[in-house]
Amino acid sequence: MASPGSGFWPFGADEGSAAAESPGTARAWCQAAQKLTGGLGNKLCALLYGDAEKPVETGAKAAPGAAEPRPVCTCDKKPCGCQKADVNYAFLHSTDLLPACNGEITTMSFLQDVVDILLQYVVKSFDRSTKVIDFHYPNELLQEYNWELADQPQTLEEILLNCRTTLKYAIKTGHPRYFNQLSTGLDMVGLAADWLTSAANTNMFTYEIAPVFVLLEYVTLRKMREMVGWPGGCGDGIFSPGGAISNMYAMLIARFKMFPEVKEKGMAAIPRLVAFTSEHSHFSVKKGAAALGIGTDSVILIRCDERGKMIPSDLERRILEAKQKGFVPFLVSATAGTTVYGAFDPLIAIADICKKYKIWMHVDGAWGGGLLMSRKHKWKLNGVERANSVTWNPHKMMGVPLQCSALLVREEGLMQSCNQMHASYLFQQDKHYDLSYDTGDKALQCGRHVDVFKLWLMWRAKGTTGFEAQIDKCLELAEYLYNKIKNREGYEMVFDGKPQHTNVCFWYIPPSLRSMEDNEERMSRLMKVAPVIKARMMEYGTTMVSYQPLGDKVNFFRMVISNPAATHQDIDFLIDEIERLGQDL
Amino acid sequence: MASPGSGFWPFGADEGSAAAESPGTARAWCQAAQKLTGGLGNKLCALLYGDAEKPVETGAKAAPGAAEPRPVCTCDKKPCGCQKADVNYAFLHSTDLLPACNGEITTMSFLQDVVDILLQYVVKSFDRSTKVIDFHYPNELLQEYNWELADQPQTLEEILLNCRTTLKYAIKTGHPRYFNQLSTGLDMVGLAADWLTSAANTNMFTYEIAPVFVLLEYVTLRKMREMVGWPGGCGDGIFSPGGAISNMYAMLIARFKMFPEVKEKGMAAIPRLVAFTSEHSHFSVKKGAAALGIGTDSVILIRCDERGKMIPSDLERRILEAKQKGFVPFLVSATAGTTVYGAFDPLIAIADICKKYKIWMHVDGAWGGGLLMSRKHKWKLNGVERANSVTWNPHKMMGVPLQCSALLVREEGLMQSCNQMHASYLFQQDKHYDLSYDTGDKALQCGRHVDVFKLWLMWRAKGTTGFEAQIDKCLELAEYLYNKIKNREGYEMVFDGKPQHTNVCFWYIPPSLRSMEDNEERMSRLMKVAPVIKARMMEYGTTMVSYQPLGDKVNFFRMVISNPAATHQDIDFLIDEIERLGQDL
């Protein structure tokens, strides 16, 4: 199959040159279009030529410092955008944009020009013939352009140039060969929703100033709780700025549930708490414990099996041990989809233990929660319905633009009791509408960005079945990769067996290491292979995939697939590229 | 002065009707334009007519379920967008958008149509003849439209309708008469920057995946530290999801600086800490103390003078008292710009006390920090350069789109030591570039949204002097309001004297209360005045301003001006509106 983008896009790989060479036909159209009144011809030409080239046959030039485009538009449809091509940004500043008096046309033109730059970037992001990254070292990049902030304003022309330059050096995270993080891809409906969110520019703390978004959060969280398996979608929750904060919320609420006096009196007034999570869990559990005054020493890491799943018998042993020492176990954070191996902890066995010892069960499904959308794969989270709280990041496996992370809590009202401070200047109690829709006092944040709209709109556009298809496809691709390399010469798998999530962990063994004995020298050479290949990938800009050491395992590649743009051919490309870049090592 | 928008925009106040009636001239152009080849005429007509009306003389209709617009474009400039008007969204789904094979044209058309909706919304936001809000009670709004999430996908036509409906019920936060929060206004360059940020869709944790944005954060934080007055802009910092989290960071770092063992061992291992802040300070100080395991009882509220400024002698007295009880004072959180009164605590006197008792001095300048941009007003923050940490929210007084909050820390490296967890899968130590640019391990968050670009681009566009002019104008308007009502019949000021920030706090006294004695009955009636006027404002949708009680003071209006679109006439309008809506109470 030919890659969809190849051959379609006539521009070079360099994003700095936003304007392509103008084909003769377009020039001819442009000349014909000039005969139209009202500046329509100019508008047309600008669309054809981009910003860098001015339309032909237009004598008008904006006077220095002029706030208004000339000649004045005579069409009677406002805003018409007719004169976009006449706006000379070299003489305009941000003060010429709205709310400037009569700033409508300049504003529309300027925003449209930014959008044209963005549309070019977006379309190019999906084109396999462009680079994922135009890599520069930090010092190079600092010197490449003047990024400094000054006293005096820049012109709008310079602002448009800043936008182009920024995108030139950005990573194309929507590129079909960008596999570097758990969050990859660029969803078009999600992007549109994020643009709308920016234009609405509001804050989630009250219904008063975010009526629709507050209701959409309500609707969406209820739906997510339904998918978790809580009857009727009952419970509570919030969208938070990322999985680490969601996990911290869970820890905070679990502590409050057991010792509500901690809110006023602090940790000094309660027994020493301990939390449990697996040795493969995300570092945010420890980070949260440090922040909340619990301390990282009180996070006990439970052993995992060779696939990275928590061993329930070890959990129970460590709980008993802690209790014997007089500590109070208050939280088990199970992981549904670990960061490196993509492992799912055995939630049913863990739920049994939590029930037995009356411990809050949290499931960190930041990465794996998306599988709840798939009838084929959701069994991997069996037992999640018994959790007290669940972290689920739609910005990972569901491809929602960053950030979008939900914390779901089974018991309603607990978040509010735990976090409320009754600020009368924000949460007035004598307002004229139902105050239960004011969500701000249950949050740790005061102001809170609208993260829900992009998820809601994508869900409307795809339906649950659309998310399911997208996720199933990514898992199928991971299996394809696994099957392709498990017996291939030059590869060693980090763990045996089919991947449970889209994480495929492997070493590439360059020819020079293949016949070596498995000794320390080989390890120390193998350790350097992935970093060098990765550095070369970035310098060529062809693809990006992550690597890391883990425990006694030296640097290995962790391939993850959450990018809906990826195909079998992209997986083939990745393998070819690793071999091309690593064969001499 | 006539309001810039009035009479310009021919559409009604109802955003649902996106298409205006087509003027005859436009129709004539449209027919002429049809003669152009390559679908250009259609494009032109669509621009003129909006989405709701199809262009004339186009016989082509998309077949049911067709993923491709017809007729096929023959122009040789890609992407051309020529065929926007031919795309029949009723038969298209999100699966027809990129990364769909040959999805470029459909994608460009769809995103352009979303942008057209947004541009209309943006321009209308500044038009005083439109409502600030089309208010509906939560239950009404839930019933007004089907917001539910389903298994099956919606068409792109329905998605565009969802966007229009969402905006119909949204608050126009950029409206010149929206004064409800500390964050108001809609900056056009900020909006453009936020759109770019969404298209780049990346994460701040490493230079690897956000090279430009990481450098811009570095440049911008350094500049902000310079403005605070730290030599050479040295120090540390981070953009966090809001002022409450920034304040929590400060508390976390202050605690770690004094007792680094708290990270591993928790609060159980260290003495009982106490923090000090004024009774007018933001609730996030207490919220942070609750979360960090310090407890709200350990936040000692210092008395304020009648203008809402912390009384330094009371601070010193309470510090000594706490020490006598054996507690350890670890943090003073001074406020530069309180939420309700806009008061600036006396930072120099507080700095002296902090120095004397070796306590971390934090300045919560979430609201007042913006005044550092103004040569005329920055003296109000004199002493801020002696702080150990500063919260400063550019999304408030500087009008940057939500969210944009910076925490600045004087000592470099402390944030990293405090928060780092050395996750090897994210912060590999053998990468090929300078790792000091990987910011993720000093954050509480793992994934972190790019909040810096909108501030950086606005700063480039305005220059420091542009921010200064914008801020000075808001303060001048606040003074205008103060002068207008201080001696006006029917008004009482909550505190005497010129406002220090843009907060103007006052009661409106309806005629029926003006001759009443100052007794309990009058208080109980006055208490209800502001809520009723506010409810009426929202129902009419003409303006929005906040009210609250404070201490023994019953509900009063807190007017704040951070909206660059506001003019003297808008202040006049607000006063007229309060009197119109409140005269019968």
Automatic annotation (TrEMBL), chains A, B:
Residues carrying N6-(pyridoxal phosphate)lysine: 396
The protein's required cofactors: pyridoxal 5'-phosphate
Membrane topology: Peripheral membrane protein; Lipid-anchor
One Gene Ontology term, aspect cellular component: presynaptic membrane
Keywords: Cell membrane, Cell projection, Cytoplasm, Cytoplasmic vesicle, Decarboxylase, Golgi apparatus, Lipoprotein, Lyase, Membrane, Neurotransmitter biosynthesis, Palmitate, Phosphoprotein, Pyridoxal phosphate, Synapse
Source domain of life: Eukaryota
Compartments, record wording: Cytoplasm, Cytosol; Cytoplasmic vesicle; Golgi apparatus membrane; Presynaptic cell membrane
Entry's Gene Ontology BP terms: gamma-aminobutyrate shunt; gamma-aminobutyric acid biosynthetic process
A GO molecular function held by the record: pyridoxal phosphate binding
Main location: cytoplasm
Pfam families attached to this UniProt entry: Pyridoxal_deC (PF00282)
Entry EC no(s): 4.1.1.15
Subunit structure: Homodimer.
Similarity field: Belongs to the group II decarboxylase family.
Function text: Catalyzes the production of GABA.
UniProt protein name: Glutamate decarboxylase 2
Species this protein is from: Anas platyrhynchos platyrhynchos (Northern mallard)
Lineage: Eukaryota, Metazoa, Chordata, Craniata, Vertebrata
